[in-house]
Amino acid sequence: MDKESSILQIVGFQNSGKTTLIEKLINKSNQNKLVTATIKHHGHGGTPDGVITSKDSSRHLDAGAIVSSVEGDGVLQLRTNFIDWNLEKTIQLYRYFSADLIIIEGYKQENYPKVVLIRSEFDLQLLDTLSNIKCVISHVPLENHRMKDYHIFHLHDEEQYVEYLMNIVLKKKEGGD
Predict the structure, then answer these.
(1) CA pair distance 20, 59, nearest whole angstrom
(2) Mind telling me which residue stretches traverse the membrane in this protein (predicted)?
(3) 8 A C-beta contact, residue 119 and residue 154
């Protein structure tokens, strides 16, 4: 349980490609012999009993994650009920699985290293409200002066952004920043 896990957050609005990106990162992590776990925030209200939420976490498991969960309205879908599940308690639980990497989908306001997915100009508002952004992956061309210190990738530059993100994860695992 003392193992320190790298943590990477994937955020964006609905249908921006978060689950697909997570699948790619899990596959790349497995190629690097890293044990990967995922945490998904069910941000649409209510408990995560529906087919949609279990479909995403199933995709994470099918891609090779050792454990996956969906949290919403006090229910953590490992079929564990607890009134006050929050991200920190879930991360502590995941440390028991000895994961090298924990990928978090959602929880936009938490302060872990983030990847922000932009599918339209409207989504740019996320950049004004989120912290600890490591890179932006966009479906649309972005004006560079708007991007400040972010690494910017177009959605089609998959090899480049997956490699960039894995370097962040591996650097953390080796004791870097």
Answers:
(1) 9
(2) none
(3) no
Beta strands per DSSP E along the chain: 6-12, 36-41, 67-72, 75-76, 80-81, 101-105, 114-118, 133-138, 151-154
Average predicted confidence (pLDDT) for the chain: 81
Question: Any idea where the domains of the chain sit in the sequence?
Answer: 6-173
Q: In the chain, count H helices and then E strands.
A: 5, 9
Q: Are 67 and 139 in contact (CB under 8 A)?
A: no
Query: Which of 111, 99, 91, 115 lies closest to 24 in space, CA to CA?
Result: 115
Q: How many residues does the chain have?
A: 177
| pLDDT tens per residue across span 13-36 | 988 999 899 999 999 999 999 989
Amino acid at 116: V
